[in-house]
């Protein structure tokens, strides 16, 4: 099994930022699955959804997961919010679910200086009622696949990163 730290959780919870900070502190490398997919097909996520549909995007996530399993080690991997459904998730490394309430996530996104851009690039965030339903549907699923759960709501990033580093060091 590959020895990576895989951060999963809902859109906007801060997976990328937490991954970059954690990597800087552990001397590990970091990659983001959405970035890998965008560079593989040279297309933004929004365009992939528009032109090829969500199921094609999910296949690209699986392709990325298969590649990660074979080729990536000692890396903090931040993932898209639906990436946790790949078949080989638990073979990629230790899976950490980052939890926040959906209302806190919506609030953080809408208060962000780049709120418009953040919403625009996430097709599944356009309709907030549907996004809330998706969150509720996924919450037990995130918890089922995760090795650890870390609360991010109302906490500073240093605190969150220290907790993850502690968990995975054991
Ligand atoms: C998705 C989350 C997005 C991106 C895509 C689908 C999802 O990533 O992969 O828009 O299904 O939750 P972030 O979680 O980084 O926003």
Describe the structure.
This protein is α/β, with parallel strands linked by helices and 170 residues long. Helices cover 55% and strands 13% of the residues. It contains eight helices and five strands; from the N terminus they run βαβαααββαααβα. It has helices at 15-26, 33-41, 45-52, 54-71, 102-111, 115-120, 128-145, 157-169, and strands spanning 5-8, 29-32, 75-78, 94-99, 148-151. It has a five-stranded parallel beta sheet with strand order 2-3-1-4-5, sandwiched between helices. Helix 2 (33-41) crosses helix 4 and helix 3 packs across helix 4 (54-71). The longest helix is centred in the middle third of the chain and has 18 residues, at 54-71. The protein is globular, with a radius of gyration of 15 Å. The relative contact order is 0.22. Bound molecules: shikimate-3-phosphate (S3P). Shikimate-3-phosphate binds at residues 11, 34, 45, 80-82, 122-124.
Give the secondary structure arrangement, pairings included:
Layout: E1 5-8, H1 15-26, E2 29-32, H2 33-41, H3 45-52, H4 54-71, E3 75-78, E4 94-99, H5 102-111, H6 115-120, H7 128-145, E5 148-151, H8 157-169
Parallel strand pairs: 1-3, 1-4, 2-3, 4-5
Helix pairs in contact: 1-8, 2-4, 3-4
The structure holds shikimate-3-phosphate.
